[in-house]
């Protein structure tokens, strides 16, 4: 069965001006969809029909097949990214997640400032990540379509897409304003906290 474009977990208008319906039409409906279509078109010739999305990503890495790797990684990264977002309702990290943030960074604001720094300074296209690594929280970034799926021990909690297509409609070239808007208002901290169980990779995987 080919991979499919998952539905957004919120209404297209639910994020308001912080991430507009037009941005979501393009980002989800065109960019994310294009990665799904490209990978589906490759599976037969690559001998990967029936493989799960995570298996396709790992095969792309093992084979040094950049086209397969980046396109399949982008499907997974976007599947995960949409789940990291929620309508702005003043949400904040609580419980075990808040405790781990305090332990690693002092305060939520300090952690978000580090994540913003990583996202803003990432050169060209890629993703900024909050991950669980050996029981503590770490900030990381990965280039292009690279994904935690391809990195042993990197358990994804939260990601931010810093490809230009993520912000150009709403923020033009102002990546820092986009990063502030998302990190300050749109993070689904309940989803982030759920990923402390180490099962984050499975939450954006797809069966082949
Ligand atoms: Mn994107």
Question: Your description of this structure?
Answer:
The protein has 208 residues and is mainly alpha-helical. It folds into two domains: 16-83, Orthogonal Bundle (Helix Hairpins); 95-198, 3-Layer(bab) Sandwich (minor pseudopilin epsh fold), CATH 3.55.40.20. Helix content is 49%, strand content 11%. It has a three-stranded antiparallel β-sheet with strand order 2-1-3, sandwiched between helices. The longest helix is centred in the first third of the chain and has 23 residues, at 21-43.
State the helical fraction.
Answer: 40-55%
Reported CATH architecture of the largest domain:
3-Layer(bab) Sandwich
Q: Report the principal-axis shape.
A: globular
Q: Give the full name of the CATH homologous superfamily of the largest domain.
A: Iron/manganese superoxide dismutase, C-terminal domain
Reported for the largest beta sheet, the result is: 3 strands, antiparallel
Structural class by SSE content: mainly alpha
End-to-end gap: 6 Å
> Which stretches are poorly predicted, pLDDT < 50 over at least 5 residues?
none
Mean pLDDT: 97
Rg, Cα atoms, Å: 16 Å
Please tell me the total number of domains. 2
The bound ligands are: manganese (III) ion
**Number of E-type strands:** 3
H-E string = HHHHHEEEHHHH
Number of helices: 9
The CATH top-level class label of the largest domain: Alpha Beta
